């Protein structure tokens, strides 16, 4: 809360008048700084952030360049940022899981905030001159995702295994996401060198530059190894998941997968079921049976996303995650004593 009194504000204004300084002088770019255009600065920032950041914000930065490319960073106003966000909301491409452009507007503001944070850090503009920070993001809507029922999972699995042009690939994807609760990005980033065959672990590299070893069942590890041997090449650092012709898998496979399942199961299409629902399903089961700490670790959430210091004391280790996996799959895991897998 701002406790500055009217008298203090008047005193500050009087001091500024005596110094010959205006409020605009305080918020303008430092003297002698050549403020770049949006075109030029977006190109620079794109080389300084992670690949994941470019993947998420790149489409929105392209929209910014189309609208303001030749303008300087310090020329955009908060009203213009809001107008661009609303334009993005109204012109978003309608997809299967579209929510009225709500997320598009949010991502546009986030993309601009990212851009302006770098501009402030570079001394190109002052903090107070950042127009994106003065535009609130749209309030997030309640997440509609929930854990799927066992019967629903069985129906989905039947369609995945019996339809499509590559049931083996789709079945492998389904099991990978159900066992590890990984995101699509984590699956697509898997490499042959990310398989630890002795300890039945896979290395997941996901958003936020997170990197962790996740236990998997011996059955899944064998399936991943077989898939890699059949469709991969000698490059251990290349993509593990591939189409029959050897091309690396892309996110489009997931879109085709769920569109196909939705054609056979109308409730999947109606509720816009996606791969992320599998993550919800697994993590809900882990939380109900093994508690919040284990579910948090199973999800790969790091300490920077905590909502209180208590999470420091309930942090689960790899063996607790493995115990939950063994109970989930009903398979013994080499990291555990035999008794740990009994239900």
From TrEMBL:
PROSITE patterns, per the entry: TYR_RECOMBINASE (PS51898)
SUPFAM superfamilies in alphabetical order: DNA breaking-rejoining enzymes
InterPro entries hit by this protein: DNA_brk_join_enz, Integrase-like_cat_sf, Integrase_catalytic, Integrase_recombinase_N, Tyrosine_recombinase_XerCD
Keyword Transcription regulation attached: no
Entry keywords, A to Z: DNA recombination, DNA-binding
CDD domains: DNA_BRE_C (cd00397)
Domain Tyr recombinase positions: 144-326
UniProt cross-references to PANTHER family, sorted A to Z: INTEGRASE_RECOMBINASE PROTEIN MJ0367-RELATED, PHAGE INTEGRASE-RELATED
Family per similarity comment: Belongs to the 'phage' integrase family.
Protein name: Tyr recombinase domain-containing protein
Naturally occurring in which organism (per UniProt): Pilimelia columellifera subsp. columellifera
